[in-house]
Specification:
By secondary structure, this protein is an all-alpha fold. Helices cover 79% and strands 0% of the residues. α1 packs antiparallel against α2 and α3 packs antiparallel against α5. The chain is globular.
């Protein structure tokens, strides 16, 4: 492995911290996203959305921004000046992405669900790149890494239906052990997904951090 790609001990430590805190944010956020998407299914009217769907998609985007952004902000302490800006732009980017998807739902609900796989990640990545450029000479592939990360999360969320199991466990008052196992599974999924952005950012910090 070349010297540019090889991580030193402190860089591996940052990657692990980023992965864990992002996964924690992802796990907590999933508990709030699930009810929003659960009730969204009952607010649709045929193939068109309405004001409720617009609000729901925007709310989901806000939750994504604040939960993931908060976890990543914790990881950035000591790596960036004013890391709180990361949380602010993450909330803005996530909310705006959710709002755009909500607007699309007013004309095509099916298209909105398709776009929800990537659009929030695009706006989240664009917003976060603004902060990255303050302490990095370049932020190569950050938006792409963010889109891949978010799209992977969405695909796994719906195909594996893990989060749906959690809300059903709560509603049906299943054992706390079952709920705990589901939470561990979500955390593990979030950890794998956060590696995509984590590896990208660790590499950027290693090679392009401003002095």
């Amino acid at each position: 492995m070349s010297k540019h790609m090889g991580f030193r001990k402190k860089e591996w430590f940052f990657l692990v911290r980023w992965t864990v805190t992002t996964a924690m944010g992802f796990t907590v956020g999933s508990l709030f996203i699930t009810p929003a998407m659960f009730f969204l299914a009952f607010s649709t009217d045929g193939l068109l959305g309405n004001l409720t769907t617009l609000i729901s998609f925007t709310k989901v985007g806000f939750i994504i921004g604040i939960s993931i952004g908060f976890g990543q902000t914790l990881a950035l302490i000591g790596q960036a000046k004013q890391p709180i800006l990361w949380l602010a732009v993450s909330i803005l980017g996530g909310t705006l992405g959710g709002f755009i998807v909500g607007l699309v739902s007013l004309t095509s609900l099916q298209l909105a669900f398709i776009l929800s796989v990537a659009v929030p990640g695009i706006f989240l990545g664009i917003a976060q790149k603004v902060v990255l450029m303050k302490f990095l000479k370049k932020a190569t592939g950050w938006i792409i890494a963010n889109v891949i990360s978010w799209a992977s999360a969405q695909v796994l969320l719906f195909t594996l239906n893990i989060d749906g199991n959690i809300i059903l466990s709560i509603m049906e008052e299943e054992s706390s052990l079952d709920l705990f196992i589901d939470l561990i599974r979500i955390f593990a999924k979030g950890a794998v997904i956060s590696l995509i952005t984590g590896i990208n950012l660790t590499w950027l910090l290693k090679n392009f951090k401003k002095e």
